[in-house]
Amino acid sequence: xxxxxxxxxxxxxxxxxxxxxxxxxxxxxxxxxxxxxxxxxxxxxxxxxxxxxxxxxxxxxxxxxxxxxxxxxxxxxxxxxxxxxxxxxxxxxxxxxxxxxxxxxxxxxxxxxxxxxxxxxxxxxxxxxxxxxxxxxxxxxxxxxxxxxxxxxxxxxxxxxxxxxxxxxxxxxxxxxxxxxxxxxxxxxxxxxxxxxxxxxxxxxxxxxxxxxxxxxxxxxxxxxxxxxxxxxxxxxxxxxxxxxxxxxxxxxxxxxxxxxxxxxxxxxxxxxxxxxxxxxxxxxxxxxxxxxxxxxxxxxxxxxxxxxxxxxxxxxxxxxxxxxxxxxxxxxxxxxxxxxxxxxxxxxxxxxxxxxxxxxxxxxxxxxxxxxxxxxxxxxxxxxx
Length: 386
Known about the structure:
single chain; alpha+beta; seven-stranded mixed β-sheet; six-stranded mixed β-sheet; 12 helices; about 30% helix
């Protein structure tokens, strides 16, 4: 290389260094292509880069998720293994994470067909491994259920799948979104009281729009009364209530009740930019055409596609057997009506919800505790977050 070429290269390097050290517009544009975990690292380079990284983080308000299914090659649940790699690629800073996994493969329950016990995956080490995948200060809510509904990672338009058997799970990551307040809550029989409900934003909160709640160990003595204590004040609000009866809650950890006690975890979603809608597929809905017609009623909400999630809370008695051995009926129907909205959910031991649209105070029906609790149904829900 000649002296002129070396000098030209030196000038070009100097110009690039100058731009990357002084021109915020260029640096900020480049950083929009950097995944969040790497973005936090490069923010330590200098003050300019730190300020640019902060501005980029404030613009990253698009929901994202990681999902997984199929047998794991390691001792960990398949979702834990995939999270380690996929969290490195996300373009947001998670503030709240909702994780749902199948009970059989996460807790190591006995496999009756083989008459032997699988490796216990619901140990403190496994829970800690899951928590380590997300930033400190991130609220992580984790529950286990008999079955999972998920959309494969990567695209909102991917076909959602129902998994009533086998290893499956997902983690939805919610960033900090302007006009949206997501507040996790966790109550057991010792901690529930009017003051606690108010502090969680579930009562006396005029901006409350949606409540996702999951009751665990509800079949225990006193569980029915406990559930009523939660649902009675919520039924009087104009918020959309949706969820189900699940097996266990493994995150956040319990501090007030002993292992095996009943309780409830959930998310209270408040703010002017939150919209929600739900419809109930009752026991009379038993064929694909009827399922699609019921789900299509959600169109009345006119909810935007961007930053919208679908949730499906179904009874373990529905699914493939309910539809005469035809798999994935309700997830397929949802995808047909909302092809660009990802769908997540569970098969549980009871469903919570009703027909309701939360937009301009329009409700499809009045609610009470009886109309919110169901069996052999599916609650199909849309939630939009600005």
